[in-house]
């Protein structure tokens, strides 16, 4: 299957084009101008998956802003004709997205992108998914910022600033401060099992910049389409799209990417989270890790490994990074966003040799390098053991919070299944069907001030078993807040 995203500049004025089309035809317009803004090809998708692919493409077009709030969509008849599918398939997609709040419709007035999407899209762009004023917040993605080692960080800051030579405050090496690259290479080799050469390590402003750099480098090599895990992080689609790449969803099962998925999709690279897949929580099996590397070698492709929370495993030692098995096929990305604080904006990229020089030049032209003082600070913090001490403290706190959340769900929502390995900053909680339907469950939670995120937000799968599937973050809350939040949620559901 192929999902084609917006061509350059097509996203601008999408709402205006939709309005013009509607004016030309009372049933929604010809659709030609509208489909200039996005395109989805369903012919190669299995018949049973075409509805889900269409829904996913529409949903992501709305989330990313390519279909702006107020845009009028073509009639179901015309879109079906454009895509070569049945009208019923399009009607089902419109109805599903209307129920989810992405679209709105009225008797005889057509189908439009909903106004409520403006706030959701703005929140995604601002990377502020935690709603202000929530009485309980289970939205995943943030560590406990109160655990940030302020005293140790402040002492290190004073020591580093006192000894940093004046010349070090000039324009930095775009790869990063040599001291930090050396310290990170040693740390990642020791903790994550990577093959880390400091000369091939770039210091970046987080994984988002690392992936942007890789996107430009891959496009320069002729790659046009990248595979994304389904479910996965919605941000990856936007980041790679900004680098001019199309993305396609690749299905997962309990062991990792479904065998042959990347080959069937014809992609040139795959973004993956093999140590602790986000959001499903699985760890890739040895067989799937091997298969993914075999695919990359066979097509001269690359695996983009996002090791977003690899240090947090609670039942055993963490699984080593995929990059250590083939450094020339795997680009390894990580950051301190989950281990310390996202506001530090420090990450790293270990690149295959053939991409390194282009990535360094891209980094230089993009921002002339990361701030020197913060790099020197982190280097000293790592070298003096402060980073390891901080991770130990966080790991103990987060393990307790995970246990607290599971116990609270077991008490207040009997029959809840928690999937995935004991790791990271979130769980997948699947509540029995008696608490559904999911849309109503989420409405009750929101009305009670409990912020939640459905698993459906992250992928195309829409199981029809009636159960409620949630991605629940726990790291940023105290155990007492977790217990209180689950109780509030149970009370809201009981009140109906």
From TrEMBL:
Keyword list, A-Z: Aminotransferase, DNA-binding, Pyridoxal phosphate, Transcription, Transcription regulation, Transferase
Chain segments carrying region Disordered: 1-32
Location of the HTH gntR-type domain: 48-116
Pfam families from the UniProt entry: Aminotran_1_2 (PF00155), GntR (PF00392)
Keyword flag Iron: no
Chain coiled-coil ranges: none
PROSITE patterns with a match to the protein in the record: HTH_GNTR (PS50949)
Keyword Nuclease: no
Name of protein: PLP-dependent aminotransferase family protein
GO molecular function, one term: transaminase activity
Species whose genome carries this gene: Streptomyces niveus (Streptomyces spheroides)
């Amino acid at each position: 299957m192929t999902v084609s995203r917006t061509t350059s500049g097509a996203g601008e004025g999408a709402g205006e084009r939709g309005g013009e089309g509607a004016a030309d035809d009372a049933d929604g317009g010809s659709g030609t101008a509208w489909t200039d803004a996005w395109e989805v090809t369903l012919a190669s998708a299995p018949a049973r998956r075409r509805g889900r692919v269409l829904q996913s493409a529409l949903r992501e077009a709305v989330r990313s802003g390519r279909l702006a709030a107020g845009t009028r969509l073509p009639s179901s008849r015309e879109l079906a004709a454009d895509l070569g599918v049945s009208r019923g398939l399009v009607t089902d997609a419109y109805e599903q997205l209307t129920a989810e709040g992405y679209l709105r419709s009225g008797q005889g007035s057509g189908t439009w992108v909903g106004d409520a999407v403006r706030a959701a899209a703005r929140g995604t762009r601002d990377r502020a998914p935690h709603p202000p004023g929530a009485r309980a917040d289970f939205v995943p993605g943030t560590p406990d910022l109160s655990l940030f080692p302020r005293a140790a960080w402040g002492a290190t800051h004073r020591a580093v600033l006192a000894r940093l030579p004046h010349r070090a405050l000039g324009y930095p090496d775009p790869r990063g401060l040599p001291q930090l690259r050396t310290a990170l290479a040693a740390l990642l080799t020791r903790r994550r099992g990577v093959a880390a050469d400091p000369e091939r390590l770039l210091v970046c402003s987080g994984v988002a910049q690392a992936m942007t750099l890789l996107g430009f480098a891959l496009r320069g090599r002729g790659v046009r389409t990248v595979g994304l895990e389904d479910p996965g992080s919605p941000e990856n689609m936007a980041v790679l799209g900004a680098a001019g790449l199309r993305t396609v969803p690749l299905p997962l099962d309990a062991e990792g990417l479904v065998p042959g998925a990347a080959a069937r999709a014809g992609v040139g690279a795959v973004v993956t989270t093999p140590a602790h897949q986000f959001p499903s929580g699985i760890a890739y099996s040895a067989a799937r890790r091997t298969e993914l590397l075999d695919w990359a070698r066979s097509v001269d492709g690359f695996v983009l490994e996002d090791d977003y929370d690899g240090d947090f495993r609670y039942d055993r030692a963490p699984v080593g990074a995929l990059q250590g098995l083939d450094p020339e096929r795997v680009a390894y990305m990580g950051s301190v966003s989950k281990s310390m604080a996202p506001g530090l904006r420090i990450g790293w990229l270990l690149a295959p040799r053939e991409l390194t020089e282009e990535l360094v030049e891209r980094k230089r032209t993009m921002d002339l390098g990361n701030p020197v003082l913060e790099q020197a600070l982190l280097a000293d913090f790592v070298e003096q053991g402060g980073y390891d001490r901080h991770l130990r403290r966080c790991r103990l706190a987060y393990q307790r919070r995970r246990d607290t959340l599971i116990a609270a769900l077991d008490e207040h929502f009997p029959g809840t299944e928690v999937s995935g390995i004991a790791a990271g900053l979130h769980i997948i909680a699947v509540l029995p069907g008696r608490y559904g339907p999911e849309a109503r469950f989420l409405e009750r939670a929101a009305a009670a001030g409990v912020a939640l995120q459905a698993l459906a937000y992250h992928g195309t799968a829409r199981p029809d078993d009636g159960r409620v599937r949630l991605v629940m973050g726990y790291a940023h809350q105290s155990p007492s807040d977790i217990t209180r939040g689950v109780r509030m949620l149970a009370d809201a559901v009981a009140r109906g």
